[in-house]
Amino acid sequence: MSDDCGKCEELLQGYLDRELTDEEVTQAELHLNGCDYCRRRYRFEERLRTYVRTTAAERMPPGLMEKLTQLRTTDPGTSPV
Questions:
Q1: Which of 4, 12, 51, 81 is 20 to 30 A (C-alpha) from 63?
Q2: Residue 6 CA from chain centroid, whole number
Q3: Is the CB of residue 61 less than 8 Å from the CB of residue 54?
Q4: Quick one: CA dihedral 65, 70, 73, 75, positive or negative?
């Protein structure tokens, strides 16, 4: 791994989070366009984030959303059941 790869590694998380300055974005993109290793690393990190985002979302049991909707629309003095 070259010094440029090390610098790209430092910028990678900020690049994925869109937190870099314009100059840093340009630097990262230039390196990613020319370095197969770092480009593969970027794609892995991007897929990993997508996987975590989609699998970490807790799914509600069937019927829970309907019950929550009923609770929101029911008068406080009445029973939703």
A1: 51
A2: 23
A3: no
A4: negative
